[in-house]
Design goal:
By secondary structure, the protein is mainly α. It is built from 5 helices and no strands. The protein starts with 13 loop residues before the first helix and ends in a 9-residue tail after the last helix.
């Protein structure tokens, strides 16, 4: 019995994993909860590759991400239940891992474009998937007590300079 309780996967489903490799369904030791667990693990690793260059979660289905997530989940299951438990080396699993990581590296570097199922190309950002006008400053908020939060002095200087250069000066009226 599994106590794994996760949200729905982002990129693939348990059904797609069964469709890609039907023999998984014939294994009595593998449950849908096991498959969901390995989907989650695969998607977590994938997000590590793509989060710096794309805004996550995607607002639309990205077919190549779905394909990679499904295959990566199968590979993780095969590695765990066949290679490790049986104690055999499975060259196919290793080759698929290499293929998956090559594709993720291409996505991460921007040499493999991502597009939605409606053929909209997603914007690749070499600067990162999320833009912040405060990205070059230390964060103001942290896990410490509220009374010890500090604003980066460089940010205060920048804001002061911006305000002092404005033509509208309510402090002078």
């Amino acid at each position: 019995m599994s106590c794994y309780n996760s949200d729905m996967p982002d990129y693939t489903t348990v059904g797609k994993v069964y469709d890609l490799y039907p023999r998984i369904g014939s294994m009595t030791t593998i449950t849908s909860a096991n498959i969901a667990y390995y989907i989650d693990q695969a998607e977590n690793e994938m997000n590590g590759f793509i989060a710096n260059n794309y805004t996550l979660p995607f607002s639309a289905t990205v077919p190549i991400i779905e394909t990679i997530a499904t295959e990566f989940s199968v590979v993780k299951i095969l590695e765990r239940f066949f290679t490790q438990e049986i104690g055999s080396k499975n060259e196919w699993v290793e080759a698929r891992y290499e293929h998956i990581f090559a594709r993720l590296s291409q996505i991460s570097s921007g040499t493999l474009a991502l597009m939605t199922s409606s053929y909209e190309v997603l914007n690749f950002s070499a600067e990162g998937g999320i833009y912040s006008n405060n990205k070059d400053y230390l964060p103001t908020f942290n896990n410490l007590n509220d009374t010890i939060q500090q604003v980066d002095g460089d940010l205060l200087d920048k804001e002061y300079n911006d305000v002092s250069q404005e033509t509208y000066r309510p402090d002078l009226e």
